[in-house]
Design brief:
With about 260 residues, this protein is α/β, with parallel strands linked by helices. The chain has one domain: NAD(P)-binding Rossmann-like Domain (Rossmann fold, 3-Layer(aba) Sandwich). The protein is about 45% helix and about 15% strand. The chain contains 8 helices and 7 strands; from the N terminus they run E-H-E-H-E-H-E-H-E-H-E-H-H-H-E. The chain has a 7-stranded parallel β-sheet, sandwiched between helices. Helix 3 runs parallel beside helix 4 and helix 4 packs parallel to helix 5. The longest helix is centred in the middle third of the chain and has 27 residues. It is globular, with a radius of gyration of 17 Å. The two termini are about 30 Å apart. About 45% of the residues are buried. Bound molecules: nicotinamide-adenine-dinucleotide (NAD). The site of nicotinamide-adenine-dinucleotide (NAD) has 30 residues, from helix 1 and helix 6.
Length: about 260
């Protein structure tokens, strides 16, 4: 079943992990995917994978913390496609751990995790309106965006902002036929998971992961494909009555 046939979808940070899996899944569902990432080579590898599988995609280098570059991507989408059906604000970083954070570390985390999603949404609205009522925004928040993380207060601050912003957007843009939802992943096996657990000097990443997995009712890590399946649902008309929802993809962590 191709639920995204003829749709145009932009995914940020789509060169790896869940973003990559989402790009492959959206393309398999029929969407033309704009695979954007800070790492242009990674974005190209993903578009090559999509093309090899019979789908269509375009690679774009995009550092989401660069607002001028972000704006340019939407100007380019306007010129190239004239419409956008799905905006998947996926980019994010763990940021510094603890509370001893410098202003520079604070700004970097906020720019990439939060400011980027705000402005991408603002820039996308005129294009999404043209796709209504088939328009959908998906935000990647985190379980740390609904319960506080003692390890990552800065990350919780940013992802909590994403979760509430998603709800505000659902209320504001719902009447325009644009849906807005968030995914709350936890413990998904990607390079970022190791980065997350490896922030403190001398951290034993594998034992920290194993300790965390013990808190997860399903007792394992999740896969990027499991997240992509949910993202494809939220992007599609199967979710036509779903907006303002924060969907936990956490193996039951928040239960
Ligand atoms: N992995 C997890 O368990 C987990 C849990 C909760 C939330 N998340 C969220 O998922 C998202 C990404 O995680 P992942 O696990 O798929 O990561 P990943 O490590 O597989 O990929 C991260 C990608 O982000 C790109 N990137 C980094 N900085 C960027 C920037 N400034 N602009 C554009 N792209 C940039 C990298 O080049 C890389 O391709 C983040 O928002 C993260 O907070 C992950």
């Amino acid at each position: 079943m191709k639920r995204l046939e003829g749709r145009i979808a932009l995914i940020t940070a789509a060169g790896s992990g869940m973003g990559r899996a989402g790009a492959l899944r959206f393309a398999a569902e029929g969407a033309h995917v704009i695979v954007s990432d800070l790492d242009e080579t990674a974005a190209r590898v993903v578009t090559d994978e999509i093309t090899a599988a019979g789908g269509t995609a375009t690679a774009r280098r995009l550092d989401v913390s660069d607002l001028e570059a972000l704006r340019e991507v939407f100007d380019w989408i306007e010129a190239e496609f004239g419409i956008l059906h799905v905006l998947y604000n996926h980019a994010g970083i763990p940021g510094a751990s603890g509370l001893e954070v410098t202003p520079e570390q604070y700004e970097k985390a906020m720019d990439i995790n939060l400011r980027s999603a705000f402005f991408a949404t603002q820039y996308a609205v005129p294009l999404l309106k043209k796709a209504a009522p088939h328009a959908s925004i998906i935000f990647t928040s985190s379980t740390s965006g609904v319960v506080g993380s003692p390890f990552s207060p800065l990350y919780s601050l940013a992802k909590g902002g994403i979760t509430v912003f998603m709800k505000a957007v659902a209320k504001r843009l719902g009447p325009e036929g644009i849906r807005s939802n968030a995914i709350l992943p936890a413990m998904i096996e990607t390079p970022m998971l190791s980065e997350f657990f490896g922030r403190d000097a001398g951290a034993d990443i594998e034992s920290l992961k194993a300790d965390f997995a013990k808190k997860v009712p399903l007792a394992r890590a999740g896969s990027p494909d499991e997240v992509a399946a949910a993202a494809a649902f939220l992007a599609s008309d199967d979710a036509s009555w779903v907006t303002g929802t924060a969907l936990a993809l956490d193996g039951g962590l928040l239960a």
